């Protein structure tokens, strides 16, 4: 009897999975549009709302007042957003954990008072006084973080107590006058409104633009090379070049506009430098990934071996450090350390800037560039309202609406991500 049974052929090997983003990129502009719409439907909207909001704000105020689009406007916004913007950078780290720090306003005022007492009352070298001031802010933040992480007191309560206590310490240091005038030297001179990068030389602004685009190009092409060698998907050169052009255009336009005024304020240079460093820490280091992990899921972070208390304490120390830097920058705008440094509005605006810029109140999502974008929105609105001679009550109402809109967008984005399986 013949055996007609045939040995089944082995199944043909299946093609390895291909990253769908690569297929979309191969489709050209249509593919990129498909990827963009997929992200928006999935709640991954990034900085899109704040960019659209800025365009609307600038358009409305320019229509209302033809002088709004002037070099003096850009210079004003670039300088006065730095102080509160530094507070907001520290808050971004805290918000990534899903927590809040209500003490940054008081810590900033206390930091200015500490600096004034050291430098003016005790004759300490200005730069040493700056170092001691920043260390005091870090120590305050670490103390509050320790109480939160180790004892278990909610961060809201700890920092609310700090909001009151550190303001009291500030008033005690300032004495009966409530104000200490600062000397125009050291960091105070560097951050003053009359101090610009490379003086009045217009090349300074363009040098900064070149450095920004050059560093971005180095990072992008280095990442492309690493991913290519590792055999994993990477951005094609054409996309990298387009991204660099998208960065170069606003960078050189900003340089040109600021040069029409007096140049780039040193305060803005410091602010941008710190943003770049913090962005690198959050996106390129294991410490930054641990912050996102703790903010996304505490229990999973513990099981992965992450020391949650250490991350929490360090993050609040970072918040205190930036609160101290922000206090020094705010004091430099008035050339004095006073009660205005602990203005509760600074705290509210710092929180609003982080949230408006795209940092989630629920933790696990955000970037330090949110502080910059949020402060651009806030200062653009404030300057526009001042030009229109509107009262402060209108400003508060508008800022409240803008903040509420940002939180609503954040909540809807999270809901979309959960429904699409990415939340």
Automatic annotation (TrEMBL):
GO MF term list: transmembrane transporter activity
A Pfam family it matches: BPD_transp_2
Record keywords, A-Z: Cell inner membrane, Cell membrane, Membrane, Sugar transport, Transmembrane, Transmembrane helix, Transport
Record-annotated membrane-spanning stretches: 45-64, 76-97, 104-121, 127-148, 155-175, 195-219, 240-258, 264-282, 310-334, 346-364, 371-390, 396-413
The UniProt record lists the keyword Cytoplasm: no
Entries under InterPro entries matching the protein: ABC_transp_permease
Topology in membrane: Multi-pass membrane protein
GO cellular component terms, A-Z: plasma membrane
Main localization (coarse): membrane
Role summary: Part of the binding-protein-dependent transport system for D-xylose. Probably responsible for the translocation of the substrate across the membrane.
Protein known as: Xylose transport system permease protein XylH
């Amino acid at each position: 009897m013949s055996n007609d049974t045939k040995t089944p052929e082995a199944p043909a090997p299946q093609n390895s999975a291909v990253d769908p983003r690569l297929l979309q990129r191969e489709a050209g502009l249509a593919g990129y549009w498909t990827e963009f719409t997929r992200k928006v439907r999935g709640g991954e909207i990034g900085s899109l709302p704040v960019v659209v909001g800025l365009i609307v704000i600038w358009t409305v105020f320019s229509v209302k007042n033809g002088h709004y689009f002037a070099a003096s406007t850009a210079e004003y916004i670039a300088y006065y957003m730095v102080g509160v913007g530094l507070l907001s950078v520290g808050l971004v780290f805290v918000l990534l954990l899903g927590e809040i720090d209500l003490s940054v306003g008081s810590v900033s005022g206390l930091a200015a008072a500490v600096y004034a007492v050291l430098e003016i009352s005790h004759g300490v070298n200005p730069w040493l006084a700056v170092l001691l001031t920043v260390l005091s802010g870090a120590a305050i933040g670490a103390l509050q973080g320790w109480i939160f992480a180790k004892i278990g007191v909610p961060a809201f309560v700890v920092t609310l107590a700090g909001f009151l206590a550190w303001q009291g310490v500030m008033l005690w240091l300032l004495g009966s006058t409530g104000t200490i005038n600062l000397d125009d030297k050291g960091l105070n001179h560097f951050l003053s409104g009359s101090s610009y990068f490379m003086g009045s030389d217009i090349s300074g602004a363009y040098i900064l633009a070149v450095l920004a685009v050059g560093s971005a190009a180095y990072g992008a092409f280095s990442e492309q090379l690493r991913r290519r060698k590792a055999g994993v998907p990477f951005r094609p050169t054409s996309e990298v070049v387009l991204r660099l052009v998208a960065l170069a255009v606003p960078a050189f336009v900003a340089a040109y506009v600021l040069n029409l005024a007096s140049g780039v304020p040193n305060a803005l240079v410091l602010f941008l430098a710190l943003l770049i460093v913090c962005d690198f820490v959050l996106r390129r280091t294991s410490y930054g990934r641990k912050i996102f992990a703790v903010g996304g899921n505490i229990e999973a972070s513990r099981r992965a071996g992450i020391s949650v208390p250490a991350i929490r304490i360090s993050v609040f120390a970072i918040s205190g450090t930036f609160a101290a830097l922000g206090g020094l920058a705010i004091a430099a705008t008035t050339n004095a350390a006073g009660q205005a440094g602990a203005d509760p509005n600074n705290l509210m605006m710092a929180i609003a800037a982080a949230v408006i810029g795209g940092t989630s109140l629920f933790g696990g999502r955000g970037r330090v560039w949110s502080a910059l974008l949020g402060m651009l929105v806030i200062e653009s609105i404030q300057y526009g309202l001042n030009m229109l001679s509107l009262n402060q009550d209108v400003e508060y109402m508008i800022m409240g609406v803008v903040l509420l809109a940002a939180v609503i967008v954040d909540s809807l984005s999270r809901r979309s991500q959960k429904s699409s399986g990415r939340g």
